């Protein structure tokens, strides 16, 4: 099984998803933390760990089974830990503001979505690592069946949808296209969850995940258009790129969806045997 | 090359009006002949007149709206300079007297197409429901002839049109629909209000405000430039100039800028049109109906200046109330100094608000309500506050100005009761058009003094609770004007009915803040526009029934 070409593709997909998530996090946190003047030195951590995640997952994407073990392990643990610590920091940032855990602070305080994406990059990276090394488990998670990765995909999609829903609500859904990321990925997540529960990979899930992956890239285009709708448009890019909407955020959907395709592939391979 | 100066040469005409959304742009404009009566001649294009012009034109009436001021294109005409933007205020000669003479200008008047909304602070609040029936429910003031639930519906319409950015849930009053756009982020000045309110155990919220938090049409979201109480050069500000008037033009209304209406003509007890001064000459526009919407000073002035043999005491004045019951709003403030760099001039000045004392009656030794908001004065206004309100001058003023970035303040908007003695009359002096100028007489009563004492003390304690030091109170300031042609149910005690129709002259209407019987404890612009929307709907309905 370890030398199975199909599993190599699955490893590539999961590692590719992790790479995309890390890319999204690097660009997003780079932009937002630059905007925040790196006031807290810890604000460089996600840049460092997402860069490392891009390097190791990217390498795995190119060559699924390199011999090294320690580097990837350190990288994925760092990503997961940095993401979780970041979630804590961002939560604290929101609650310390006047009004506490209210809508305005959730809109304008530090976002939960970015550190969440880094955590997901760490988890998917670890999964790809275990798969590549022919290991069956990652802690309690049984990785080779594809079901656990599928569940992780559903969870990741829902978390990312929550962030998009909140911030698109903040933008009052002024463009009808803003409804896409709160309708399509939940459908993909639900379909994936059903496949995981039934242990039956369905074509419709592949289609929905593919559409979600495409939507993430198209979303970056929409966000670029959103930047152009600020005063001065792209001519004033140095300000408006920071004002948002964040161009690197939507591809996080792409990353999770691609990893989900890897999970589906594993499920299909196993059932075909 | 000729300089395009909208203060010297009218821009609207020759079949086109300025496009407020594009530098140098134009939009087509229908034009009406002067010798053929239009359905409505509207005097004034601000919150009352501009809104009504849109509603009436969209209802299919022929409308010509006059404004004494210029037709600006915000994107190119408003420099980021407080001095330059003095051009937006009505600074013609007036005489002010009484025990507390009103300061006229930035706080209470505008002279532009779009009226004062071109430089208003964008704070868009609903009256407290009880404040439409203060006499019956709270035992002071006078009742409005309109039910609050009806006003609530029109507030909805105005809030949608202006794309108000507001909190997800408003803490006071009956339920209201969600604001069309989400609230803006708080600036540091607003955070000080929030912290103080939380320390004193009262509610606060993000101020519902007429500047965009998301792009709408060709308007960008607010860039928090801070020139909010002057002209907004980004068009995020949802003034009448950029919201109702483009719609009015599209629906076939004509707008005549730099057109000062001096007299409303009547014959056999009905209006026949208006005399107006434009491009150096007096002209006459025939009209089947005339709407006066010049705000609390110019409206009574025009009605009184239009006195003739039929109406020797001025138009619509059988009750003798035209010009009387002038109300302003209390605008006192508490200020302090903090360690944080506040830079309160960043973003809209009033991003946080508490209406606690507008809705709570217990614990007051006075009638009426007041709200208070965070503040963000630009340097010139701040210097005036320090010089006029605190008495600093010379080096002391310079030193204090240097600490501007650490100053933080709260300002009230408080209810002034209607008193007949507070009024607008005509002085003997005349202005550049040969029209008698207004004399504005205003004195506060003991009720206002008691409210100020309570409010300023409370705001001071709120600042103290946030750790602000060197606190001081700015006691001499007012804002907004209302009254002088109040609406009511009884021709003997009011000037117009609930539809803003004159009791005396059936085709004369008054539609602006003049018709307010009471002012409530919040900024009036949203209510003026809501009344204009209601009046537009009522006129259309009356027209269908043949009652015009």
Task: Please tell me about this protein's structure.
The complex is a heterodimer of chains A (273) and B (548). With 273 residues, chain A is an all-alpha fold. Helices cover 73% and strands 1% of the residues of chain A. In chain A, a hairpin with a 2-residue loop joins β1 and β2 (141-142). The longest helix of chain A is centred in the first third of the chain and has 31 residues, at 5-35. Chain B is an alpha/beta fold. Chain B has 12 helices and 22 strands. In chain B, β18 and β19 (436-441) form a beta hairpin. The mean pLDDT of chain B is 96. The chains are: A mainly alpha (273), B alpha/beta (548). Chain A binds chain B through residues 97-99, 103-104, 107-108, 169-172, 174, 226, 229-231, 243, and chain B through 167-168, 180-183, 185-186, 191, 194-195, 198, 206, 213-216, 220-221, 223, 234, 236.
What key phrases describe this protein's structure?
heterodimer, A: 273 residues, two-stranded antiparallel sheet, 10 helices, 2 strands, B: 548 residues, alpha/beta, 8-stranded antiparallel beta sheet, 7-stranded mixed beta sheet, 24% helix, GMC_OxRtase_C (chain B), oxidoreductase (chain B), FAD/NAD-bd_sf (chain B), FAD (chain B), GMC family oxidoreductase (chain B)
Q: How do the strands and helices of this protein lay out in sequence?
A:
The complex is a heterodimer of chains A (273) and B (548).
Chain A: H1 5-35, H2 45-62, H3 70-95, H4 103-108, H5 113-132, E1 137-138, E2 141-142, H6 147-170, H7 180-198, H8 203-228, H9 237-243, H10 251-272
Antiparallel strand pairs in A: 1-2
Helix pairs in contact in A: 1-2, 1-5, 1-10, 2-3, 2-5, 3-5, 5-6, 5-10, 6-7, 6-10, 7-8, 8-10
Chain B: E1 16-18, E2 26-28, E3 38-43, H1 49-58, E4 63-66, H2 74-77, E5 95-97, H3 134-138, H4 148-162, E6 165-166, E7 181-182, H5 188-200, E8 205-206, H6 244-250, E9 254-256, E10 260-267, E11 270-278, E12 281-292, H7 295-305, E13 327-330, E14 333-337, E15 352-354, H8 356-359, E16 370-374, H9 379-389, H10 394-402, E17 407-415, E18 423-430, E19 436-441, H11 446-465, E20 469-474, E21 478-482, E22 508-510, H12 525-544
Parallel strand pairs in B: 3-4, 3-12, 4-9, 5-19, 6-7, 12-22
Antiparallel strand pairs in B: 1-2, 8-15, 10-11, 11-12, 13-17, 13-21, 14-17, 14-20, 15-16, 16-17, 18-19
Helix pairs in contact in B: 1-6, 1-12, 4-12, 5-11
């Amino acid at each position: 099984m370890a030398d199975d070409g199909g599993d190599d593709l699955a490893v590539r997909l999961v590692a590719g998803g992790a790479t995309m998530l890390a890319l999204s996090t690097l660009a997003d946190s780079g932009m937002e933390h630059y905007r925040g003047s790196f006031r807290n030195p810890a604000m460089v951590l996600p840049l460092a760990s997402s860069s490392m995640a891009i390097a190791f997952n990217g390498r795995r994407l190119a060559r699924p089974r390199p011999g090294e073990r320690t580097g990837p392990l350190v990288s994925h643990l760092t990503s997961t830990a940095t993401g979780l610590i970041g979630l804590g920091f961002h939560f604290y940032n929101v609650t310390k503001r006047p009004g506490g855990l209210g809508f305005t602070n959730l809109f304008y305080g530090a976002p939960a979505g970015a550190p969440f994406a880094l955590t997901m990059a760490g988890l998917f990276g670890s999964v790809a690592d275990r798969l590549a090394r022919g290991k069956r488990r990652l802690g309690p998670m049984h990785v080779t069946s594809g079901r656990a990765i599928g569940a992780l995909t559903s969870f990741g999609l829902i978390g990312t949808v929550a962030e998009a829903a909140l911030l698109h609500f903040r933008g009052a859904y002024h463009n009808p296209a803003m409804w896409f990321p709160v309708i399509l990925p939940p459908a993909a997540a639900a379909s994936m969850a059903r496949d995981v529960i039934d242990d039956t990979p369905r074509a419709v899930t592949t289609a929905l995940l593919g559409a979600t992956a495409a939507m993430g890239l198209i979303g970056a285009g929409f966000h670029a258009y959103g930047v152009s709708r600020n005063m001065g448009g792209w001519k004033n890019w140095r300000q408006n790129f920071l004002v948002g909407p964040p161009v690197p955020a939507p591809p996080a959907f792409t990353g999770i969806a691609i990893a989900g395709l890897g999970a589906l592939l594993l499920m299909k391979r196993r059932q075909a045997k | 090359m000729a300089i395009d100066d909208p203060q010297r040469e009218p821009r609207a005409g020759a079949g086109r009006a300025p496009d407020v959304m594009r530098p140098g742009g134009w939009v087509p404009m229908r034009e009406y002949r002067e010798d053929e009566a239009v359905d409505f001649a509207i005097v004034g294009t601000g919150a009352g007149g501009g809104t009504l012009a849109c509603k009436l034109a969209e209802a299919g009436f022929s409308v010509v709206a006059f404004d004494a001021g210029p037709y600006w294109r915000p994107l190119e005409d408003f420099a980021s300079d407080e001095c330059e933007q003095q051009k937006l205020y009505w600074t013609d000669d007036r005489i002010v007297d009484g025990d507390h003479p009103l300061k006229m200008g930035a706080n209470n008047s505008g002279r532009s197409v779009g009226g004062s909304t071109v430089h208003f602070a964008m704070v868009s609040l609903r009256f407290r429901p009880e404040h439409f029936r203060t006499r019956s429910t709270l035992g002071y003031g006078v009742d409005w002839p309109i039910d609050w639930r009806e006003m609530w519906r029109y507030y909805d319409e105005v809030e949608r049109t202006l794309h108000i950015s507001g909190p997800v849930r408003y803490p006071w009053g009956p339920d209201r629909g969600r604001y069309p756009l989400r609230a803006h982020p708080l600036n540091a000045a607003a955070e000080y209000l929030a912290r103080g309110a939380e320390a004193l155990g009262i509610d606060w919220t993000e101020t519902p405000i007429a500047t965009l938090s998301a792009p709408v049409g060709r308007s960008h979201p607010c860039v928090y430039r801070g020139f909010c109480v002057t002209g907004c050069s980004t068009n995020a500000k949802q003034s009448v100039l950029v919201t109702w008037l483009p719609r009015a033009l599209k629906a076939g209304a004509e707008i005549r800028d730099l057109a000062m209406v001096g007299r409303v003509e009547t014959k056999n007890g009905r209006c026949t049109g208006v005399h107006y001064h434009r491009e150096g000459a007096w002209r006459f526009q025939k009209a089947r109906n005339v709407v006066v919407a010049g705000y609390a000073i110019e409206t009574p002035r025009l009605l009184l200046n239009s006195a003739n043999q039929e109406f020797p005491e001025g138009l619509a004045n059988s009750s003798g109330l035209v010009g009387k019951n002038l109300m302003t709003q209390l605008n006192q403030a508490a200020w302090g100094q903090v360690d944080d760099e506040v830079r309160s001039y960043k973003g809209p000045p009033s991003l946080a608000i508490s209406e606690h004392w507008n809705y709570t009656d217990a614990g007051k030794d006075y009638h009426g309500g007041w709200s208070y908001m965070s503040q963000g004065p630009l340097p010139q206004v701040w210097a005036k506050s320090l010089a006029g309100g605190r008495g600093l001058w010379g080096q002391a003023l310079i030193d204090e100005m240097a600490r501007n970035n650490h100053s933080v303040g709260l300002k009230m908007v408080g209810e002034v009761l209607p008193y007949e003695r507070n009024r607008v009359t005509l002085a003997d002096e005349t202005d550049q058009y040969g029209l008698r100028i207004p004399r504005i007489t205003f004195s506060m009563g003991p009720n206002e003094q008691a409210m100020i004492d309570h409010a300023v003390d409370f705001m001071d304690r709120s600042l103290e609770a946030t750790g602000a030091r060197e606190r001081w109170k700015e006691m001499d300031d007012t804002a907004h004007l209302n009254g002088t042609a109040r609406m009511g149910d009884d021709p003997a005690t009011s000037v117009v009915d609930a539809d803003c129709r004159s009791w005396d002259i059936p085709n004369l209407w008054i539609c602006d803040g003049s018709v307010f019987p009471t002012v409530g404890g919040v900024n009036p612009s949203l209510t003026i526009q809501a009344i204009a929307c209601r009046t537009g709907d009522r006129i259309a309905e009356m027209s269908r029934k043949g009652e015009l």
